[in-house]
């Protein structure tokens, strides 16, 4: 995913092009209606002026010479009234009105597009923090398209109005035309200088918005609120929110102040411009080179131009703000394009090696260039093998699992799944073959049955299959506890009467979901970390029993379970320091053996509680 950089003119143009295409795709009727209507209405002041000039010339001729008839002028006067009325109404067609009219189509349309694009993001991308940040930044600016279209239409209308008025100015007097051009250029320069300044301030403000939002929610969300109250730190958290909010307020005030300043200077500029024009015109009238009707015409021309120019600062800022958001969204969309079907069809959908499941050669991995997490790993996992991956907290177990799933690519070295590199397979090949439980599992605020059934969505209505997965995941007691059984809802976000499970209960439900997936390779990363050591052993024992000879990787930093595996990989400081069966490693008296002896005391203590817990005889002996 490309890093976001400060948007230059090319980025703005690309964002505008992309936004216009998207608006056309989302609602072309709205697009056509408002671009045509606003441009059409915008030229009315110029038409009115042209009419005005004719009428004034005819009227002054009629008054001074008495030639012709007044009734002949009536249709023109009526027509002028109509044009002025419609033209007056057209000035109400400003950014705010257009924004309201377009909101439903473009805001919701863009939001929908964003949600679709999130579905397309590869999971290996979505697990990266910077990608999540990009997505958050993109989705939080869904008003950008409405900003572009409303202020764009409004600006186009102003431009059409100014150009048509300038044509009238050119016909009336070249000097006036030149002065008008100069005045407009000054206004455009002022706006562009300010918008660049405002854009930088906005980037800083966005960081602060995120910070303020985070600290604001701390007080509302149960878990963090509990922490802050227990430690009596709510007031301190509030000062953090205050600090962030002060910056936001300051930036917003500066922005409004900047727009007001530009509007003010544009108006002052206008009065100077008007006085200059009128003085020039009066001299011309005094010298007999200009008639009074032209003088009146120039006055009206000036006021019409000023009116058109006065709304430019606001529209320009809205447009710039919209382009800023669209630039973020465009980059995000372009980086999350759907897989190319042609390229996809050339990829493999069959394994190359039926004996070796994972092959890891010289694998190194670093989240940040200078801090390697895994160093030069070499191992194979054969089909049908049960491997325990053990090591202390932070030694890289979960990272290695993510690499084995193809979620992260190695920084160095090579990983193959069933004989091929991950990039050689079609999109879903790997995920269709590996069922995984991650320690940071998520329970959906849906029914118990749906939570488990999601492991294999095609079978989500298959009750016997779900019941079997629940039994294998050790969640039978959770099911018994819930009054509505499989139909009982979990969590309170969607249904206020949903059940709240304990950490251990939730973990059992999530493990059941992985069993439901029933893939040919199964990976369990800390499936019992929320259970006590005895229950943890039970959980691993159940998992091992139910795997039925499939390739599997069991991960834990508590080591007692490892002897259930055919083979143990010991990770220490990002390296595989030992690799072998339990007895072999115990006999070696190395890292594993030491680790095992240290933790054995726990299991001895827990042994005393065996009867109390009703542990069955067939369960493994504890150390
Ligand atoms: N997304 C990430 N970005 C940067 N560093 C990370 C990220 N995820 C993990 N790390 C770092 O990588 C190292 C290994 O983390 P990992 O989660 O793989 O360890 P682990 O052995 O699974 O730990 P535990 O037993 O506590 O689950 C840690 O030092 C951790 O801080």
From TrEMBL:
InterPro entries associated with the record: AAA+_ATPase, ABC1_TM_dom, ABC1_TM_sf, ABC_transporter-like_ATP-bd, P-loop_NTPase, Type_1_exporter
Subcellular location: Cell membrane
Domain of life: Bacteria
Chief place of localization: membrane
Entry-linked Pfam families: ABC_tran
Membrane topology field: Multi-pass membrane protein
GO molecular function, one term: ABC-type oligopeptide transporter activity
Transmembrane segments: 31-51, 63-86, 148-169, 175-194, 264-283
The protein's name: ABC transporter ATP-binding protein
Cellular component GO terms, alphabetical: plasma membrane
Domain ABC transporter residue range list: 358-598
This protein's UniProt keywords: ATP-binding, Membrane, Nucleotide-binding, Transmembrane, Transmembrane helix
Residues of the ABC transmembrane type-1 domain: 155-319
Matching SMART domains: AAA (SM00382)
């Amino acid at each position: 995913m490309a890093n976001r950089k400060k948007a230059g003119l090319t980025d703005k143009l690309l964002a505008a092009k992309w936004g216009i295409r998207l608006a056309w795709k989302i609602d072309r009727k709205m697009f056509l209606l408002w671009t045509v209507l606003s441009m059409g209405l915008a030229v009315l002041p110029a038409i009115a002026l042209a009419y005005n000039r004719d009428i004034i010339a005819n009227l002054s001729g009629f008054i001074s010479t008495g030639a012709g008839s007044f009734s002949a002028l009536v249709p023109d006067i009526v027509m002028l009234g109509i044009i002025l009325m419609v033209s007056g109404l057209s000035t109400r067609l400003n950014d705010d009105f257009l924004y309201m009219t377009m909101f439903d189509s473009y805001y919701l349309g863009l939001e929908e597009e964003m949600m679709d694009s999130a579905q397309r993001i590869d999971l290996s991308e979505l697990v990266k923090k910077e990608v999540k940040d990009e997505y958050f930044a993109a989705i939080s600016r869904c008003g950008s398209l409405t900003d572009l279209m409303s202020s764009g239409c409004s600006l186009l209308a102003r431009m059409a109005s100014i150009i048509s008025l300038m044509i009238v100015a050119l016909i009336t007097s070249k000097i006036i035309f030149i002065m008008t051009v100069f005045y407009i250029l000054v206004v455009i320069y002022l706006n562009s200088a300010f918008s660049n300044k405002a854009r930088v301030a906005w980037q800083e403000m966005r960081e602060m918005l995120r910070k303020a939002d985070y600290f604001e929610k701390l007080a509302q969300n149960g878990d963090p609120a509990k922490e802050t109250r227990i430690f009596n730190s709510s007031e301190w958290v509030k000062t953090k929110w205050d600090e962030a909010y002060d910056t936001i307020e300051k930036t917003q005030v500066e922005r409004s102040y900047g727009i007001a300043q530009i509007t003010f200077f544009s108006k002052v500029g206008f009065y100077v411009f008007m006085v200059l024009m009128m003085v020039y015109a009066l001299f011309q009238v005094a010298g007999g080179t200009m008639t009074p009707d032209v003088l009146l015409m120039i006055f009206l021309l000036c006021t019409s131009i000023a009116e058109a120019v006065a709304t430019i600062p606001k529209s320009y800022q809205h447009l710039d703000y919209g382009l800023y958001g669209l630039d973020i969204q465009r980059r995000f969309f372009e980086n999350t394009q759907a897989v190319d079907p042609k390229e996809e069809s050339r990829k493999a959908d069959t394994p190359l090696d039926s004996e070796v499941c994972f092959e890891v050669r010289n694998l190194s991995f670093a989240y940040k260039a200078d801090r390697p997490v895994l160093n030069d790993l070499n191992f194979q996992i054969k089909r049908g093998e049960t491997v325990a991956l053990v090591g202390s907290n932070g030694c890289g177990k979960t990272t290695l699992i993510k690499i084995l799933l193809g979620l992260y690519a190695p920084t160095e070295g090579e990983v193959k799944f069933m004989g091929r590199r991950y990039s050689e397979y079609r999109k879903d090949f790997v995920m269709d073959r590996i069922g995984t439980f991650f320690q940071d599992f998520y329970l959906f605020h849906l029914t118990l049955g749906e939570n488990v059934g999601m492991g294999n969505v095609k079978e989500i209505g298959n009750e016997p299959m779900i019941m079997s997965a629940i039994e294998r995941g050790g969640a039978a007691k959770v099911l018994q506890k819930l009054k509505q059984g499989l139909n009982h809802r979990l969590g309170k976000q969607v249904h206020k009467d949903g059940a709240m499970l304990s950490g251990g209960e939730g973990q059992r439900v999530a493990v059941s979901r992985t069993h439901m997936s029933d893939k040919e390779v199964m990976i369990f990363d800390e499936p019992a970390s929320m259970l006590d050591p005895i229950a943890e052993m039970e959980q691993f024992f159940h998992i091992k029993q139910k795997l039925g000879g499939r390739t599997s990787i069991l991960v834990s930093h508590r080591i007692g379970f490892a002897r259930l595996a055919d083979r143990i990989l010991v990770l220490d400081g990002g390296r595989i320091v030992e690799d072998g069966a339990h007895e072999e490693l115990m006999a070696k008296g190395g890292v594993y053996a030491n680790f095992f002896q240290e933790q054995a005391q726990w299991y001895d203590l827990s042994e005393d509680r065996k009867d109390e817990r009703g542990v069955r005889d067939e369960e493994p002996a504890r150390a």
